[in-house]
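Same chain as my last thread, 108 residues:
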Amino acid sequence: MPAPRKYPDELRERALRLVEEAMTVDPQLSLNAVVHRIGQRVGIVPDTLRGWAKQRRVDTGKVPGTTSDDAKKIKALEAEVRELKRANEILLAASSFFARELDPRLPW
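reply #2:
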């Protein structure tokens, strides 16, 4: 179960919109300067806002990286692989057990 969100989605969207607008208005500003300025105004920790802004840039295709949707798919596929490996181990153990039952002379 995921942890409860500290910031409401509306506040998150508003802060991200303000960061994007500030970067558009003054392209000379660094992301670090913008998130410190906006974070203080809206009451969000700058490191949190920086992470959101970086992920938003990846999700919109402005910067290469793993999008949020791809990350969710990767996580689901990794869980599926773990489950399949576990099932495979169980099946191998069962087949070994039943092979010994059929022929006790086998070395395993």
